[in-house]
Amino acid sequence: MMKISIATDHNGVNEKKEIIALLSEYEFIDKSTNNTPIDDYPDFAYIVAKSVINKEVDFGVLLCGTGIGMSIAANKVKGIRCALCHNEFTAKFSRLHNNANVLAMGADDVTVNEAICMIRMWIATEFEGGRHEERVKLIGEIENKNMK
C-alpha cells in the first residue's frame, strides 16, 4: 500500500481529515495531528519533506490556505520537488514532467473532491523521463550548488 505523509496548518484541518477518510486505498501518515488555531506552516512542510527524503513514505501531501507557503517551505529541503497544484492537469504534469515528490494544495482554493481527484491523478502518474530526466537533473545541480 502506498504510504503518504500529509500535513496541514490551521487552514486545512477538516479537509485533511476528509481526504484521509475518503482515500482509504492509501496509508496516510498524519504529521499534523495537534493543530492549533495559529500554526506555523513551515514546521509541517519540513516534517513532511524530511519524511519523503528519509524514505519513510512514498510521497508527501501538504495543505495550507493557498498552498504557497507550504510549497515554498518544502522546496527548501534538498531533494524535494514540491508542486503547488490547482487542478488535475497541473497535478498530472507535476509528476509526468517534473517528478514531483510532494504535492501542495490550497485548502481555500480547492474543494475536498477536487483535492481527492488531484491526489489520485498525481499518484497514478508516472514520471515520463526522457528529455524531462535531464531537466530534473539540472534542478538537482542547482540544488547542489546552492544548498549545503
Could you characterize the architecture of this molecule?
- There is one protein chain.
- The protein is α/β, with parallel strands linked by helices.
- The protein has one domain (about 5-145): Ribose 5-phosphate Isomerase B, Chain: A (3-Layer(aba) Sandwich).
- It is built from 6 helices and 5 strands.
- A 5-stranded parallel sheet has the order 2-1-3-5-4, sandwiched between helices.
- Helix 4 links the parallel strand 4 (about 80-85) and strand 5.
- Helix 1 (about 15-20) packs across helix 5, helix 2 (about 40-55) crosses helix 3 and helix 4 (about 90-95) runs parallel beside helix 5 (about 110-125).
- The chain is globular.
Q: How are the secondary structure elements laid out?
A:
Elements: E1 3-8, H1 13-22, E2 27-30, H2 41-53, E3 59-64, H3 68-74, E4 82-84, H4 88-96, E5 102-106, H5 112-124, H6 131-146
Helix pairs in contact: 1-5, 2-3, 4-5
Q: Could you tell me how far the N terminus lies from the C terminus, measured between alpha carbons in angstroms? A: 34 Å
Q: How many domains is the backbone divided into?
A: 1
Instruction: Characterize the biggest β-sheet.
Output: 5 strands, parallel
The total of beta strands comes to 5
Helix content: 40-55%
Shape: globular
Secondary-structure element series: EHEHEHEHEHH
CATH homologous superfamily name? Sugar-phosphate isomerase, RpiB/LacA/LacB
Q: What portion of the residues fall into strands of 2 or more residues?
A: 15-25%
CATH class: Alpha Beta
Unreliable parts: none
Give the helix/strand class.
Answer: alpha/beta
Give the name of the CATH architecture: 3-Layer(aba) Sandwich
